[in-house]
Amino acid sequence: MIIGVPKEIKNNENRVALTPGGAQELSKHGHEVYIQTTAGEGSGFMDEEYVEAGAQILPDIESVYAKAEMIMKVKEPIEPEYKLIREDQLVFTYFHFASYEPLTRAMIDNKSVCLAYETVERPDKSLPLLVPMSEVAGRMSIQEGAKYLEKPLKGRGILLGGVPGVRPAKVLILGGGVVGTNAAKMAAGMGADVTIMDLNLQRLRYLDDIMPANVNTFMSNEYNIRELISTHDLIVGAVLIPGAKAPHLITRDMLKDMRPGTVLVDVAVDQGGCIETCKPTTHQDPTYIIDDVLHYCVANMPGAVPYTSTLALTNATLPFAIQLANKGWVKACQDNRDLALGLNIIKGDVVYDAVAEAFDLPHVPFEKYLGNAH
Q: Most CB contacts within 10 A, which of 193, 261, 310, 332?
């Protein structure tokens, strides 16, 4: 198979979908790998390293899309890329369709095959290609939140861990999944007073067992959220419903109950956000203030630590990429149900239910394209 890796063009996105090591593995399996020049530089990988690994360098993004049968990316295609994607071309990346209708419509129109990292799902409901970036984003949410609590950056002026004789900051984490667990670990490690909320009592029991003493668990509901937001300094939105738009757990009217300088970090922003006043921002201009409450809503948080993020992501995606390249997407998805669940749009048909539901589009089961394999 011919695999193409374009340079990411989203604002301040420095990750790359394939490392030189990944390019070498695909080349060893007999596949042709084409990398857009400088695509890996933001993550610390030079063109020469890709060439030594058996890849070929192409001069521009148009050449990569024109050449490849499978495109591997990190972030969803943005508008300049829509017209470059061809009918039947396989695009393997994060899409987050349910949060952005123009992207969904564009991929329907170009009749490509869209396989989304974020909905590849194991039988235990874990999301193996979302986990590495959720781990990075969860840890970063505390790192960034601690920074923006500083007064010069318009925060409350409170040190996350406090000092002897002074209380530490109070951190509220909405969601006890991978993002929330990693956020809680970081906040606890920095000495904050942490509360983590979730709807799942079994999950809360597990977190209560594994977390240090400065992490408390609390059942998530509107009453409890309203009770806690007035006393917490940093609030992290860490809620995910696979493939679907995130629910609004913090509504606009709740901001008035927060203290001036409270910091909100919405990690769910690329799925629409679980904070109603959240809108996507960039690393270049990461924050804004509404009702004296500071919002940090960067849609590609792991892009700020691209070396770590690229290695973490490609460790997880490469085995699936090899399956797709070796077998073609139809056979690979017939043989691997986890991978089949990553199919979101196929040749103009929406085959992922939550995406169809988000925009009131017809839903076609992916089995239509896979025959009777399932």
A: 310
Q: Which of 89-93, 219-223, 257-261, 300-304 has the lowest mean pLDDT?
A: 300-304
- Whether the pTM exceeds 0.90: the reply is no
Query: Where is the binding site for NAD(+), in residues?
Result: 134, 198, 203, 220, 239-240, 267-270, 298-301
Residues carrying an active site annotation:
96, 270
The tens digit of pLDDT for each residue in 4-58 reads: 999 999 878 899 999 999 999 999 999 999 999 999 999 999 999 999 999 999 9
What would the pLDDT profile of 223-232 be if each residue is shown by its tens digit?
Answer: 999 999 999 9
Top-level CATH class of 131-299?
Answer: alpha beta
Longest dimension (CA), the chain: 67
* Binding-site annotation, residues for substrate: 15, 75
Domain ranges of the chain: 2-119+306-370, 131-299
Query: Which of 3.60.15.10, 3.40.50.720, 3.10.450.50, 3.40.640.10 is the CATH number of 2-119+306-370?
Result: 3.40.50.720
